[in-house]
Specification:
The complex is a heterodimer of chains A (about 270) and B (about 375).
Chain A lengths: L3 H6 L15 H15 L6 E5 L14 E4 L5 H11 L4 E7 H7 L1 H10 L3 E7 L34 H8 L3 E6 L3 H13 L4 E6 L3 H7 L5 H11 E3 H4 L11 E8 L5 H11 L4
Helix pairs in contact in A: 2-7, 4-5, 5-6
Chain B lengths: L5 E4 H12 L1 E6 L6 H10 L6 E4 L3 H13 L3 E6 L1 H17 L3 E9 L5 E5 L4 H6 L8 E3 L4 H18 L2 E7 H5 L1 E4 L45 E3 L13 H17 L1 H4 L2 E4 L6 E4 L2 H16 L4 E6 L1 E3 L3 H10 L2 E6 L4 H10 L4 E6 L8 H11 L1
Parallel strand pairs in B: 2-3, 2-4, 4-5, 5-8, 7-8, 12-13, 12-15, 15-16
Antiparallel strand pairs in B: 1-9, 5-6, 7-14, 11-13
Helix pairs in contact in B: 1-2, 1-6, 3-4, 10-13
Classes of the chains: A alpha/beta (about 270), B alpha/beta (about 375).
Chain lengths: ~270, ~375
Amino acid sequence: MPSAIVSEYFRTNKLPQIWCPGCGHGIITRAITVAIDKLGLDRDKICIVSGIGCSSRAPGYMDFDTLHTTHGRALAFATGIKMANPDLKVIVITGDGDATAIGGNHLIHACRRNIDITAIIYNNNIYGMTGGQYSPTTPKFDKGTTAPYGNVDKAFDIPALAAAAGATYVGRSTAYHTQLLISLIENGIKNEGFSLIEAISVCPTYYGRKNKKGSAVEMLEWQKNHAVNIAAASKMAPESLDGKFLIGEFKNSPEPEYTKEYQKIIDMFKKE
Amino acid sequence: MKSKARLMQGNEACVEGAIAAGMKFFAGYPITPSTEVAEIAAEKLPLVGGKFIQMEDEIASMAAIIGASLAGSKSMTATSGPGFSLKQENLGYASLAEVPCVIVNVQRSGPSTGLPTSPAQGDIMQARWGSHGDHPVIALTPSSVRETFDLTIKAFNLSEKYRVPVILLMDEIIGHMRERVELPEISEIEIIDRKKPTVSREKYLPYKADDDLIPPMAYYGDGYRFHVTGLAHDETGFPTNNPAIADKLYRRLLDKIELHKNEIIEWEEQCTDDADIVIISIGGVSRAADTAMKQLRQKGVKVGTYRPITVWPFPEKRLIELADKVNTFVVAEMNLGQMALEVERIIKDKAELIKVNKVNGEAIYPEEIIEKIEEVL
């Protein structure tokens, strides 16, 4: 029997989903629906948009208005949707390759505009759908099928990228830290502006196997043992953070929202 | 009462037509010689409660208009050759997902950056085959400022009616030309809106076509909670790998245009009744063709003109009829023979075919057409 959340918010006739056993994407997708549920939003006024890749298959299972677009372009499609109907809450589900490689330009400009879209980047550190090629978030020296001797590219720090580009709400959590993830998504949706939440997933099939990271459970345990909340990190000695990574709310600084700013222009010409 | 006569540029007439047709969203990226379309849209849209956005690139502009259309706004973008190439990815998406939208391509000389920004008509085949896979295409080509206004409205109407992206294939000559125009009253203009579902959410199948092969289209936010994808899909809109369903979908996309082609196809012909020679041309070149015809008629040469207004689907049936009585077709175009390929395919060996081609960034002049015709007389 599916849980109440799944029965309520998923297209249960489309389940089971296509993801591999142990994939973290299901946890993240569920977290999004829990956040929506907690916010008590009108589900007919929510539009979920994705690009191409493993994560981008999520909207197909979610019982909302959903749009599965082209590779990297989800944010550009979402921008058109939000402009045409600002009453819609627009949520974008995308992956590390989708959002930061082929869609990198769209990402920084959506951040810059501060348009009211909440983007959730499922980061599995690899191109999963095509079979394990290195992505812009594959750690340096890790392996992928196109980096058989180790990846020499430096990885993107997605929250730093988004914050620098102008996103007004930025956070990071992991598939392990589900409660934090739910609250970040909730706050992201509540923020009237561009919100970005990096959700670090696990890909035991490609990234894990290629880099000897163990089982899905071991990969989740690694997240548990290596993530440090930014609130706690500020009180810790720098050397105790070696080999760790930060999670939590990185930026929360609301600014005027794009479609509202544009509406002011329209209102200038409204007849009395 | 008609509006007062105005001196208007082709690109401006395009925006006037779009607004008359109900455009409420424009996404674009600067590129000559189409930039005025974006500039004027930015100025005029807020006045009618519409919205303009300058996106980060051509790809994003195309994506944004598809998104806006799905959320219920009639949408348009404008570009030229290099940008048109970039739009092909999402143009294919709009074809498969059946999202109404209008793409203006004010053609310039290419390939690549080419001769910015001299006139050309080198995108005739790109308009037809630019996106991968078999897909439906409607492309309209105006040859005057007033016709740019009319065809922009027609482009919106066709895209709404058939749920297909429609390309307004202009050229730099028409885009930048200024002419005296009188625009019709809004009440005189026929506006077509997409058909919406009449059934409840539970019964709505977003990709189940009616007998006219066109599925009714809900808007995002209407409460239908439907799914749209660029993957092959069944009538529910969800992806499928079933070969029979995929085959049926791909064929329906082409068939829905084929079924209605008599309503879509438009052309103009002059003096073809007694013509031995017929000049075929589109857009800016048609103006030179008209002059060439008139001058040759004065010399007693029986010349007519044939101007496809819908370049895709190509007005084929009438051309077949003409081929039975015409000795020679002269295809004049600002490329190295793209439309001639289509004419050749249609007329087969029934008549002689002569090409007048120019790709040096200059317009084709009437004398050049006359000279070529006099060579074969």
